[in-house]
UniProtKB/TrEMBL annotation:
Species this chain originates from: Novosphingobium aquae
Ranges for domain Response regulatory: 2-116
Lineage of source species: Bacteria, Pseudomonadati, Pseudomonadota, Alphaproteobacteria, Sphingomonadales
Protein name as it appears in the record: ANTAR domain-containing protein
Residues the record lists as 4-aspartylphosphate modifications: D52
Domain ANTAR: 122-183
Keywords linked to the UniProt accession: Phosphoprotein
Length: 192
C-alpha cells in the first residue's frame, strides 16, 4: 500500500511513519510542501493520504479541504482541535476519517483501515446512485418515446412499447438507443 503523509512538521510525520513501520505492506512518502500538493500527490499515486495538520488556521483547513476534493483517494486527516464547522467541511470535502487529538503510533493503522473502508463504501454508494440515476433517465426517455408513438400512431402504451422493442431487436440495438432516436427525430421534426 502506497501512503502519502502530508505534514509540514517532520516530527509529526515521524509519528505516523512509526505507526506504519511494523507493517510490511506499506510504502510511505512524506510531503512537507503545501505548494503543488495535488501535483505531488498525483506523482506519488498513493492508495491513501494521511494529512496531519496539527492546529491549522481556517485558511489552511480550507486549502487542505480543496486538495481533498481534488483527490479521488481515501484521506485521513489529523487535527489537534476542531469544531462542528470544520468537521462538516471535512465531510463535504470527502475526507474519509477526521481524527481530533488522536495522533499516536498505535492508532495509525486502525485509522488508516477505517479511512479506506469508508472511502470504498462511499464510492460504492456513489456508483449505485449514478447507476440508479442513469436507469431513471433511460426509463424517462423510453416513456417519452412511447408517448410520441402513442400520439403519432394513435396506439396504446403496450403497442408503443412493443414497437420500440421490435425495432431494437430487428436492429440489434438496445431499446434505449431506439427510444433516444425516436425522441431526437421527433424533436428535429418540430415536436415537443
Amino acid at each position: 500500500m502506497r501512503i502519502a503523509i502530508v505534514d509540514e512538521s517532520a516530527t509529526r510525520a515521524a509519528v505516523i511513519r512509526e505507526g506504519l513501520a511494523a507493517f510490511d505492506d506499506c510504502e510511505t512518502f512524506v510531503v512537507t510542501e503545501r505548494r503543488g500538493l495535488v501535483a505531488r500527490i498525483g506523482e506519488i499515486a498513493p492508495d491513501i493520504v494521511l494529512m496531519d495538520l496539527g492546529n491549522p488556521s481556517r485558511d489552511v483547513l480550507e486549502e487542505y479541504f480543496a486538495v481533498s476534493r481534488a483527490l479521488d483517494r481515501p484521506i485521513a486527516m489529523f487535527v489537534d482541535e476542531s469544531d462542528e464547522e470544520s468537521i462538516a467541511a471535512s465531510i463535504d470535502a470527502g475526507v474519509s476519517s477526521y481524527v481530533v487529538d488522536g495522533l499516536a503510533p498505535h492508532r495509525i493503522r486502525p485509522i488508516l483501515d477505517l479511512a479506506v473502508r469508508r472511502f470504498n463504501a462511499f464510492a460504492r454508494l456513489q456508483s449505485d446512485l449514478a447507476e440508479a440515476k442513469g436507469k431513471l433517465a433511460e426509463r424517462e426517455t423510453i416513456d417519452r418515446a412511447k408517448r410520441i408513438l402513442m400520439d403519432t400512431r394513435g396506439c396504446g402504451e403496450p403497442q408503443a412499447y412493443t414497437e420500440l422493442r421490435k425495432a431494437a431487436m430487428d436492429q440489434g440495438r438496445r431499446i434505449i438507443d431506439i427510444a433516444e432516436a425516436v425522441v431526437t427525430a421527433h424533436s428535429l421534426l418540430g415536436g415537443k
